[in-house]
Amino acid sequence: MKKSVLFNKYTIRTTILILLIYAGLTNTAFAQNAALGSSTTWGKVDGVAVNGLVQGPSAAEAELQVACVFEYTEGDIFNPPALPANLNGMVHLDDALKGIITELRKSGKFTGHSLETLLIIPPKGTLAAKKLLLIGLGERTKFTPDLMISVGSVAMREALRLGVSNYSFASDIKDAGIDSPTALVAANVVLGSFEAYRTQTYLKDKKLSDHKPLSKIILLAGPAFYTVAGDGIKEAIAKLNAKS
User: Fold this and answer.
1) Which residues form the Peptidase M17 leucyl aminopeptidase N-terminal domain (predicted)?
2) How much is the pTM?
3) What angle do CA 95, 230, 55 make, to 5 degrees?
4) Which of 68, 92, 153, 178 could bond 58 through an S-S bridge, CB–CB 3.0 to 4.6 Å?
């Protein structure tokens, strides 16, 4: 009888301990996932706000939406290792435009070569943004985070050339199933963007550019990557402001 009581007490304590550990792990997992629509101003560089937003590129409100794509392989955004359709911003973007992105890529009209660009003016009501800029990332097997410095620069230069006061940026690397360092990718986008911005500002001071002032950049991230991306963005902002 005593052995039975002791066994039951031990079993209960063990069960409670397991439940507490599970609850702690579960709460940690949920804490790392930001809610859809979450927004933060990570900081400012040269008076330009750098915002974070948990949203897909088809639904983010901005004057210009920038989205990145790799060179085409059959079914690449729809099949593993790409994220499932419900979490995949590029799939949502393609669906909103009735498959035109896949059609352009598959036909070779937009190859997705590294730093290749294509501007699309979406029909009213299809996207939250007024314009869509695609930027190529090249071959997925050759991707490195350093490329995102140049991608960030291209995005900024095109935004200034188009005369928008704000733009939203989606790297879509995770969506494509590429295991990349989230914080470093986000930081490199910011670094490249403001390298280009400062060059254009320098030219404007020399009366060699007349770009419209930029008010903000919106960097999109999925719920699971938002906080980590923010860490990289804040690090890049601090680095840029230390150089100003």
Assistant:
1) 91-196
2) 0.86
3) 20
4) 92
CATH topology of domain 35-243: Leucine Aminopeptidase, subunit E; domain 1 (3.40.220)
User: In the numeric block, which tokens belong to residue 24?
Assistant: 């702690």
**Domain range list for the chain:** 1-32, 35-243
Structure tokens given for 146: 């350093």
pLDDT tens for each residue of 151-206: 999 999 999 999 999 999 999 999 999 999 999 999 999 999 999 999 999 999 99
Please tell me whether the peptide bond between 81 and the residue prior to it is cis, using omega within 30 degrees of 0: yes
- Nearest-angstrom CA–CA distance, 224 and 33: 5
**Which string of DSSP letters, residue by residue, matches 30-99?**
HHHSPPTT-EEEEEEETTEEEEEEE--TTT---SEEEEEEPPP-TTTTTSTTSPPGGG-HHHHHHHHTTT
pLDDT at 32: 65
User: Number of helices and strands (H, E) in the chain?
Assistant: 6, 7
pLDDT digits (tens, 9 = 90+) for 202-226: 999 999 999 999 999 999 999 999 9
Helix 182-205 vs helix 147-162: angle between axes, to the nearest 10 degrees?
40
